[in-house]
Automatic annotation (TrEMBL), chain A:
This is Protein LplC. PANTHER family: ABC TRANSPORTER PERMEASE PROTEIN MG189-RELATED-RELATED, POLYGALACTURONAN_RHAMNOGALACTURONAN TRANSPORT SYSTEM PERMEASE PROTEIN YTCP. GO terms for biological process: transmembrane transport. One of its GO terms (cellular component) is plasma membrane. It is a multi-pass membrane protein. The gene is lplC. Its main location: membrane. Residues 73-274 form the ABC transmembrane type-1 domain.
TrEMBL record, chain B:
InterPro entries: MetI-like, MetI-like_sf, UgpAE/MalFG_permease. One of its GO terms (biological process) is transmembrane transport. Keywords: Cell membrane, Membrane, Transmembrane, Transmembrane helix, Transport. Pfam families: BPD_transp_1. This is Protein lplB. It comes from Paenibacillus abyssi. PANTHER family: BLL4140 PROTEIN. Signal peptide: none annotated. Residues 88-303 form the ABC transmembrane type-1 domain. Belongs to the binding-protein-dependent transport system permease family. The chain crosses the membrane at residues 29-55, 92-113, 134-154, 174-199, 229-250, 282-301. It is a multi-pass membrane protein. It is found in: Cell membrane. GO terms for cellular component: plasma membrane.
Length: 290, 316
C-alpha cells in the first residue's frame, strides 16, 4: 500500500503546523511569566526568553505587598461574586417563564429582549443614564447595567425547554407551584448549564474594563483590569516621555509590570480547565435556536 | 409529546374563553418576569430613547425631555469635524484588513485540527488554541507593550540578534496596523475554529469512505468533501462579518493605541469616548454614536438581504 507512507508524512506536517500554532499562543504568556520571575539585570540585558533567569521573587513581593493592589484584588473578587450571583438569579427568573408556551405575551417579551441584542443607545446615553441614576463611582455601576446577557438568557431558556414536560407535570400533580417547580425540578436538572454560564458571567466581569473606565474615578473602586491599565499601559506614555528626556515619574520595572499582568491572569488560568470543559457544549446549546 | 400538545391546546382554548384568568392563573410567572423586564426597560430602552439628545441642545439641568430641539444641527457640526472622518476611515480600514487576515485562518486551522488522528494531541491543541480568547484586552495590551517594545522587547531583541534593525511595532503607524492585526489573530483564531469544527462533525462519514474506495488522496478529500461541507458556514460567517463592518469594539484599539499612532488607531468607539467622556461634549458624541449605529444597521440589513439571496436563509 503506497499511499500509507505518504499519509504519515502528511500527518506529521499537520501535527507540526498545529504545534507551531500552539507555541505561538503560549510563548507570549510564558515570556511574561519568565519576566515576572527574573532579576532586573538579565531582563535589561535581554537574556530572558521563556525561562526565568536568576529567579527573583521581588516583583511578586512588591505586588502582594502593595495595599492598593491587594485592595483591588479583593474588591474585584467581591464584585465578580456579587455580579455573578445577581446575574444568574435575574437570568434564571427571566428564562423560566419564557419557556411556557401558554404564557400570554410571551412572544412580545421575547422580542422585547432580543431587540436589545441589535440596538443600543450607545456609550454616551448609557453613561448619562448611569450618571442620572447617581450610580457613578459606586459598585452598582459595574453590576446593574450589564446584569443580564440576552444571549445567555436564550441559552438557558433553550436548555429549560429541553427538560421533559412530564417531570414538571408530575410535580404539579403533587401540588407544586411555579416557584417550587423552578427550584426543585428545573434548576437541579440544569446544573451543568448553570455552572457554565456562571463561569461565563464571572470571566466576563473579571475581564471587563470599559465600564470601569467610564463609570469609576475613585481609586478605591478600581477593578483589577483598570488598575492594571493605569499601571502597565498608561505608564507607556510616561516611559516615552522619559525616553525623550522629559521630566516624568520614575519608570516601573519590567518585572513588576509582568508580575502585575500575571497577578490578573492567573485566576483566569485557574478556572480555565472548567471553562473549557463546558463552553463547547454551552455554545452548542446556544447554536440550536430556541 | 402527546401530553405536551394536549396541555398546550387546552391552555390556549381556556385563554381564549377567559383572558382575564391568565393573569390570575400565571401570576407567579409574571412576577418572575417583572424584575428582568424592568431591567431591560431601564438599562436598554431608556438609553435608546436617550439617544434623542443628538437632535437636542442637551442641557444637564433641564434633562433630556425639556431640552430644546435643534434638528440636525449637531450632525452638521459632526460632519464638519476632521477627526470624525479619520475615525470613520480607520474603523472601516481596520475592520476590512481584519476580515482579510483573521477570517481565513480559523478555517485553515479547523481543517487541520479535523485531520488530526491522535486524539490526545487534538484535545491538547484545542485547549491551548482557545486560551487567548479568555484573556482580557488590558492584559493582552500589557503583554504586547512588553513583548514588542522597541528598546528591550523580546521580539526586537531576537531581530537584533539576527542583525536586523529594531521594528517600532507600536509607535509607527504602518507597523502599528500590522501589530493590531497580528494580535487579533493571536486572540481569536483558535476560538474561531469552534463553529467550523461543529460544522465539520455534520459531514457524512460515508462520503470519506466512498472517496477511500475510489483511491482519493487526503488533499482531494479535503478539497472535494471537507471544504464543500463547511461552505455554507463560511458564507454565512463572511456575510455576518461584512454586516459588522461599521462597528468596532472599544477595548482592542483603545489598549493598543498610544499618542504616536492616533492617525491610524483612532476609531469611532474610541473617538466617541474621547469627545463624549473626556471632553464632556455629550450631544456631539451621541450623534457620532447614532450615525455609526445607523450605518451599522444598513450594513447588517444589506448583509441579511444578500444572505437570503445566496443561502435562502437570513443571518438570524
Amino acid at each position: 500500500m503506497k499511499p500509507y507512507g505518504n499519509d504519515k508524512v502528511i500527518d506529521m506536517t499537520i501535527m507540526s503546523l498545529i504545534f507551531i500554532a500552539g507555541i505561538f499562543c503560549l510563548v507570549p504568556l510564558l515570556h511574561i511569566f519568565a519576566l515576572s520571575l527574573s532579576a532586573n539585570g538579565p531582563i535589561l540585558s535581554g537574556k530572558v526568553t521563556i525561562f526565568p533567569v536568576d529567579i527573583d521573587f521581588t516583583a511578586y513581593k512588591t505586588v502582594f505587598g502593595n495595599p492598593a493592589m491587594i485592595h483591588s484584588l479583593f474588591f474585584t473578587i467581591g464584585l465578580v461574586a456579587l455580579f455573578t450571583v445577581i446575574s444568574m438569579f435575574m437570568t434564571v427568573i427571566a428564562a423560566y417563564p419564557l419557556t411556557k408556551p401558554r404564557l400570554k405575551g410571551r412572544n412580545f417579551f421575547l422580542l422585547f429582549i432580543v431587540l436589545t441584542m441589535f440596538f443600543s443607545g450607545g456609550m454616551i446615553p448609557d453613561y448619562l443614564l448611569v450618571k442620572n441614576l447617581m450610580l457613578l463611582d459606586t459598585i452598582w455601576a459595574l453590576i446593574l447595567p450589564g446584569m443580564i446577557n440576552a444571549f445567555y438568557l436564550i441559552i438557558i431558556k433553550t436548555f429549560f425547554s429541553s427538560i421533559p414536560v412530564e417531570l414538571e407535570e408530575s410535580a404539579r400533580m403533587d401540588g407544586a407551584g411555579h416557584f417550587k417547580i423552578l427550584t426543585h425540578v428545573v434548576l437541579p436538572l440544569s446544573l451543568p448549564v448553570l455552572a457554565t454560564l456562571s463561569l461565563f458571567y464571572a470571566v466576563g466581569r473579571w475581564n471587563g474594563f470599559m465600564d470601569a473606565l467610564l463609570y469609576i474615578t475613585n481609586a478605591e473602586l478600581y477593578p483589577l483590569q483598570l488598575k492594571l491599565y493605569e499601571m502597565v499601559i498608561n505608564s507607556q506614555v510616561n516611559d516615552m516621555a522619559i525616553a525623550e528626556g522629559m521630566n516624568a515619574a520614575a519608570p516601573i520595572p519590567e518585572s513588576l509590570k509582568a508580575a502585575s499582568i500575571m497577578f490578573a491572569t492567573i485566576p483566569i488560568l485557574l478556572v480555565y480547565p472548567w471553562l473549557q470543559r463546558y463552553f463547547i457544549s454551552g455554545m452548542m446549546i446556544g447554536a440550536v435556536k430556541g | 409529546m402527546q401530553i405536551a400538545t394536549k396541555r398546550h391546546t387546552g391552555a390556549a382554548s381556556r385563554v381564549r374563553t377567559n383572558s382575564k384568568s391568565s393573569l390570575v392563573r400565571d401570576w407567579q410567572l409574571y412576577l418572575l418576569l417583572l424584575l428582568p423586564l424592568a431591567y431591560f426597560f431601564i438599562f436598554k430602552y431608556i438609553p435608546m430613547l436617550g439617544a434623542v439628545i443628538a437632535f437636542k441642545d442637551y442641557n444637564m439641568f433641564q434633562g433630556v425631555l425639556a431640552s430644546p430641539w435643534v434638528g440636525f444641527e449637531t450632525f452638521r457640526e459632526v460632519f464638519a469635524m476632521n477627526g470624525f472622518y479619520i475615525a470613520l476611515r480607520n474603523t472601516f480600514m481596520l475592520n476590512l484588513l481584519d476580515l482579510l487576515i483573521s477570517f481565513p485562518i480559523p478555517i485553515i486551522l479547523a481543517i487541520l485540527l479535523n485531520e488530526l488522528r491522535v486524539k490526545w494531541f487534538k484535545k491538547g491543541a484545542q485547549t491551548i488554541l482557545y486560551l487567548p480568547h479568555f484573556i482580557s484586552w488590558v492584559i493582552i495590551g500589557g503583554m504586547a507593550i512588553q513583548l514588542l517594545a522597541t528598546n528591550n522587547g523580546i521580539v526586537n531583541n531576537i531581530l537584533k540578534s539576527f542583525g536586523m534593525q529594531p521594528v517600532p511595532f507600536l509607535t509607527e503607524p504602518f507597523y502599528w496596523v500590522i501589530t493590531y492585526l497580528g494580535i487579533g489573530v493571536w486572540q481569536s483564531a483558535g476560538w474561531g475554529t469552534i463553529i467550523y469544527l461543529a460544522a465539520l462533525t455534520g459531514i457524512n462519514k460515508d462520503l470519506y469512505e466512498a472517496a477511500d474506495v475510489d483511491g482519493a488522496t487526503r488533499m482531494r478529500k479535503i478539497w472535494h468533501i471537507t471544504l464543500p461541507g463547511i461552505k455554507p458556514t463560511i458564507v454565512i460567517l463572511l456575510i455576518i462579518n461584512i454586516g459588522h463592518m461599521a462597528t468596532i469594539g472599544f477595548d482592542r484599539p483603545f489598549v493598543l493605541s498610544n499618542p504616536l499612532v492616533t492617525d491610524v488607531s483612532e476609531v469611532i468607539s474610541t473617538y466617541v469616548y474621547k469627545i463624549g467622556i473626556q471632553s464632556a461634549r455629550y450631544t456631539i458624541a451621541t450623534a457620532i454614536g447614532l450615525f455609526q449605529a445607523v450605518v451599522g444597521l444598513i450594513f447588517l440589513l444589506s448583509a441579511d438581504y444578500i444572505s437570503r439571496k445566496v443561502n435562502d436563509q437570513g443571518i438570524w
